[in-house]
Amino acid sequence: MISRNCLLIANRVLRELRRDYRTLFLFTMSPLFVMILVAGMLVETPRTFDRSGLLVMGLFPTAPGFLFAAFAIQRERYRGSLEFLLSGPVTRLDVLVGYLLAFSVPAVAQVALTVSVSYGLLGLDSAGPWWAAALLAMLACVLGVVLGMFAINLAHNELQLTKVLPTVALPHLMVSGLFLPYEDMPGWMQAAATIAPWRYAVGAVSELHLHSSVTSELVLNLSVTVGIVFALSAVTVGTVLRRRTA
Amino acid sequence: MFSVRITLAITRRILREVFRDTRASIFLLVAPGVLIVLVRNLFESAADFAPTGAMMLGAFPALSMYMVGSTLVVRERNRGTLEAILATPASRLDFVLAYLCAAVAASLVQAVSTVAVGYTLGGLETASPPWLLGAMAALCAIFGMSLGLICSAICQNEGQASQLVPGIMVPQLLICGVFWPLPVMADWLRAIERFMPFSTVTRAMTAAREHSYGGSELVVNSVAMAVLTAAALLGVAAIIRRRTA
């Protein structure tokens, strides 16, 4: 799965990211910044902060992953470098894995920063251990990157993307269980939540808030999330990352 | 200085371009309603929803128009259409006024659809009549658009423009009171909130919900929005120019 070609692509994407200070800064710092704001918002209610703060920490990494992966792939496709890559001995899987690897490097820094500040300075408290939360945050980032690539199916250029992203992401956020737990939603909203990929990631992080041991609920939500990552990757490889003839 | 005929011609072109894209139409006209219905269902009763709902009536139009606006000028410049327009008898003021007219037209349509959904499906109840909140929603949308235009005028390329949205708007949106009531936030956060341009939107909408016709709070925030809008548009007019050599 990890071939020489995909390492080369990862290296190139990483170099591009490193040159782009603005993107790199937003990518690594934005979850930390949002955590500090959330801590300030919920300063009067530490128990709410323990739940919402953990959810934000474990799930917010999806957003920058989604955004920057979408723009990076869109640029790749729009400017023709994707066609160029695929006309060589590079497979479509190489491109996907290369991007995932490249985004994982700043994601590690981002998650390390967010988790250490949240548990250390902001006083976040959860039943599950901090490293489990960090791993879930990494998974959220990977989910974001894959979702971002998948979202390219809905837009033809970068400017359309700026309208597609919020239209997809905002309703998704509302039904994901971040604001209202799944059990308390009305029936039609539960139905919508069932097909929202993010809901299972939210479910996994909520389990971590309540239980210190591995529960069946956690395993279920986690495996569905991983399954979604693979399913979306498969679709993305088939639709977004291909040479378009005619 | 400027001509009505040229301004209207540019306005028509902008509106045609924006709404030709189905995604933009959905984003501007359908998404606010969907979001209001979803958020309404996150709350137990219509009374619990009212504070958030009233703020959303202003915040979502402002946010969505900001996002549309933030890509417009940078595209005109990068694709060369700005140079082409300025090479004709059209002046920079024509150009900016045309964007303002387009914002007014789009925001009115958006305000009608958003407020209609808010008061029917959302079950919103406010001290001020719905038409006032509709007018405020339109003002918020125009304000959002002009903020987007100034950001867009500053940006070098389209990638930068798309990063400004999360970088500038998300923090303001988080602390403006839509997600969590202002009075219980930390003092330093409320101190920041007071100086954020986006706060005028939520403050004006809250005032309109709490008091009949809003009172002085509404007037102050509306004036602030109008002044910021004018400043942003004048800024755009100052920044765009034909670059020689």
UniProtKB/TrEMBL annotation, chain A:
The chain crosses the membrane at residues 21-42, 54-73, 93-118, 130-152, 164-182, 218-241. PROSITE patterns: ABC_TM2. Its main location: membrane. GO terms for biological process: response to antibiotic. It comes from the Bacteria. One of its GO terms (molecular function) is ABC-type transporter activity. Keywords: Antibiotic resistance, Cell membrane, Membrane, Transmembrane, Transmembrane helix, Transport. Coiled coil: none annotated. It is a multi-pass membrane protein. It is found in: Cell membrane. Pfam families: ABC2_membrane (PF01061). GO terms for cellular component: ATP-binding cassette (ABC) transporter complex. Residues 11-245 form the ABC transmembrane type-2 domain. Belongs to the ABC-2 integral membrane protein family. This is Transport permease protein. It comes from Actinomadura soli.
